TrEMBL record:
<protein>
    <recommendedName>
        <fullName>Pyrroloquinoline-quinone synthase</fullName>
        <ecNumber>1.3.3.11</ecNumber>
    </recommendedName>
</protein>
<dbReference type="InterPro" id="IPR004305">
    <property type="entry name" value="Thiaminase-2/PQQC"/>
</dbReference>
<dbReference type="GO" id="GO:0033732">
    <property type="term" value="F:pyrroloquinoline-quinone synthase activity"/>
</dbReference>
<keyword id="KW-0884">PQQ biosynthesis</keyword>
<keyword id="KW-0560">Oxidoreductase</keyword>
<dbReference type="InterPro" id="IPR011845">
    <property type="entry name" value="PqqC"/>
</dbReference>
<comment type="similarity">
    <text>Belongs to the PqqC family.</text>
</comment>
<comment type="pathway">
    <text>Cofactor biosynthesis; thiamine diphosphate biosynthesis.</text>
</comment>
<dbReference type="InterPro" id="IPR039068">
    <property type="entry name" value="PqqC-like"/>
</dbReference>
<dbReference type="Pfam" id="PF03070">
    <property type="entry name" value="TENA_THI-4"/>
</dbReference>
<comment type="function">
    <text>Ring cyclization and eight-electron oxidation of 3a-(2-amino-2-carboxyethyl)-4,5-dioxo-4,5,6,7,8,9-hexahydroquinoline-7,9-dicarboxylic-acid to PQQ.</text>
</comment>
<dbReference type="InterPro" id="IPR016084">
    <property type="entry name" value="Haem_Oase-like_multi-hlx"/>
</dbReference>
<feature type="domain" description="Thiaminase-2/PQQC">
    <location>
        <begin position="12"/>
        <end position="221"/>
    </location>
</feature>
<comment type="pathway">
    <text>Cofactor biosynthesis; pyrroloquinoline quinone biosynthesis.</text>
</comment>
<dbReference type="GO" id="GO:0018189">
    <property type="term" value="P:pyrroloquinoline quinone biosynthetic process"/>
</dbReference>
């Protein structure tokens, strides 16, 4: 069996997957250029909602599989961030407000009438991955956090500039997420590096992150195809 990669090389392997992240997807390119229609933005928000609502379920699966109480305490904070400490709070609630700012009703987002089969398949596969794989692989899949801050910063600026009809309160998800994403990315990377003691575990972590990048791009593929742009 091969020796484990040095920490710097392992980290570099993970960071190199930034080229597979969804920031360069044609749908995002058009979003930032300001060429999406209102209908396309609504479809994006409704489908992204399905991903947002499933993130706490993914994180709960990690907790269920992790034997380390220190890791569970750390990871449990993410569920609270998304679900909120009480009703009407949290990242999921802020995403619903974004959908409403785009002209969707809360009812039509919550009943998932706009969620496409491709989106549902990809997101369900991600939740099942977290349930069935060792917890550190599921944590590694979330290392897309390393790549997301730049995209989110650019998205917030471009959407404000290109789609001025969106009310400012619709951007609450992005403004609040930007405050925590960099710290979460660093802590997740540290957790993965510390707990991948063998070369096999390191390779599995790299594969997990690649899988997550494919899940994200599959969501946009579904939206893009339905919009008739691809």
């Amino acid at each position: 069996m091969s020796e484990p990669l040095p920490e710097e090389e392992f980290t570099a392997r993970l960071r190199a997957l930034s080229s597979r992240y969804w920031d360069t997807h044609p749908f995002h390119v058009r979003m930032h250029a300001g060429t999406l229609s209102k209908d396309e933005l609504q479809l994006w928000a409704a489908n992204r909602w399905y991903y947002q609502r499933c993130i706490p379920r993914k994180d709960a699966a990690i907790l269920a599989n992790c034997p380390d109480p220190d890791v569970r305490r750390q990871w449990g904070e993410r569920i609270v961030w998304h679900d909120g400490a009480r009703a009407g709070e949290g990242g999921a609630e802020n995403w619903l407000r974004m959908a409403e700012a785009l002209g969707l009703t809360r009812e039509e987002v919550l009943d998932e009438r706009h969620v496409l089969p491709g989106t549902r398949f990809a997101v369900d596969a991600y939740v099942n991955f977290a349930r069935s794989k060792p917890w550190v692989e599921a944590v590694a899949s979330g290392l897309t956090e390393m790549f997301s801050r730049g995209l989110m910063t650019r998205r917030l600026a471009d959407m404000r500039a290109r789609y001025p009809w969106i009310a400012e309160e619709g951007f609450a998800y992005f403004t609040t997420r930007l405050k925590v994403i960099e710290g979460e990315g660093r802590s997740t990377l540290d957790l993965v590096v510390r707990n991948c003691a063998t070369r096999e575990q390191q390779e599995a972590a790299v594969a997990a992150l690649a899988f997550k990048c494919d899940v994200l791009r599959a969501i946009l593929d579904a939206v893009d195809y339905h919009s008739g742009r691809s």
